[in-house]
Design brief:
Helices cover 64% and strands 2% of the residues. The protein has 237 residues and is mostly helical. The protein has two domains: 138 residues, no CATH class; 76 residues, no CATH class. A two-stranded antiparallel sheet has the order 1-2. A hairpin with a 2-residue loop joins β1 and β2. The longest helix is centred in the middle third of the chain and has 41 residues. It is elongated, with a radius of gyration of 27 Å. The protein starts with 10 loop residues before the first helix and ends in a 10-residue tail after the last helix.
Length: 237
C-alpha cells in the first residue's frame, strides 16, 4: 500500500510501502512530489526505524537494480552492503522517493550505459549525476513557488486598492515636494487600513504623523524596493 494511504507504524510497514515495485507508482504521481512530498529522508529512516532498516532498504533497492538490468557481472552481497553504506553516509539527506526515482532512472538508462556490469563506482557516479538533475528541479520548484507568492500578494494589493511599488514611491515624493506631507500620507494609509507592524506582526494601530514623515518613508520604500528587486512593496510604515 502506498505510504500516503497508511500510517507507517514500524520498519516492516516502511519496507513494504517503499519496496522497489512501488518505484513506478511514486514516480508517476507528479514529478514534484518525489522531491517535496512527505516521504522520509534516508537519515530519518535511520533515526526512526534503525540503521539496519535503512541498510536493508538500500540493499533491496540495489539488489533489485542488479537483477533488473540482468548483466552478467553483478555486485555480490558484500559489494551491495558497501554501496548501501556509502549512500547512507553521503546521501542521507535524500528522500527515499528521490532514491527510488534514481534507481528507476538507472534502469531506464538516464545516466548512461554500464557496459555489461553494475558496480559500486557506477552507482555512486550516477548518483552524482542525479544530484545535478535534482537540484535543477528543486530550484525550478522553489522559483515557481516564489512567483506564486508574488502573484498572490499582488492580487491582494490590487483588491485592497493599495498602490504598486513605483506608484507608492512617487506618491511619497509628491507629498514631500508638492504639499500635504505627513498628514496626506497618514490619511492615505488610514483610508486603506495600513497599520504599523513590528517585523511581520501588526501592532494594531495606525501610524503617527512622525512615522509618516516623507523622508523616512521614501528611504524605507527605496530600500524595500531594492531588496524585492522591483516587486510590490510592503506598505506598512
Amino acid at each position: 500500500m502506498p505510504a500516503s494511504q497508511t500510517k507507517l507504524r514500524n520498519a516492516a510497514e516502511f519496507l513494504e510501502a517503499f519496496n522497489p515495485s512501488m518505484q513506478n507508482y511514486y514516480c508517476t504521481q507528479g514529478k514534484d512530489r518525489i522531491y517535496t512530498g512527505t516521504a522520509p529522508m534516508l537519515k530519518e529512516v535511520n533515526e526512526q526505524y534503525g540503521y539496519q532498516t535503512a541498510m536493508s532498504w538500500l540493499a533491496i533497492q540495489i539488489g533489485d537494480l542488479n537483477s533488473q538490468l540482468g548483466y552478467k557481472w553483478q555486485m555480490d552481497v558484500r559489494q551491495i552492503d558497501d554501496c548501501a553504506s556509502l549512500i547512507l553516509e553521503r546521501h542521507g539527506g535524500l528522500k527515499v522517493t528521490e532514491l527510488m526515482a534514481f534507481f528507476r532512472g538507472m534502469k531506464m538508462g538516464d545516466y548512461g550505459e554500464f557496459y555489461g556490469t553494475v558496480n559500486m563506482n557506477a552507482v555512486m557516479t550516477s548518483l552524482n549525476k542525479f544530484y545535478t538533475v535534482r537540484n535543477k528541479q528543486l530550484e525550478k520548484i522553489y522559483d515557481n513557488e516564489k512567483d506564486e507568492v508574488k502573484k498572490v500578494k499582488e492580487r491582494k494589493r490590487k483588491d485592497s486598492g493599495l498602490m504598486a511599488a513605483e506608484e507608492y514611491r512617487n506618491f511619497l515624493y509628491d507629498c514631500k515636494e508638492n504639499g500635504g506631507g505627513a498628514e496626506r500620507i497618514r490619511e492615505y494609509l488610514i483610508e486603506h487600513g495600513v497599520k504599523v507592524t513590528d517585523g511581520e506582526h501588526p501592532c494594531g494601530r495606525y501610524p503617527t504623523l512622525e512615522e509618516c514623515d516623507p523622508d523616512r518613508l521614501i528611504a524605507m520604500a527605496e530600500e524595500r524596493e531594492r531588496m524585492m528587486k522591483g516587486g510590490p512593496l510592503p506598505t506598512s510604515p
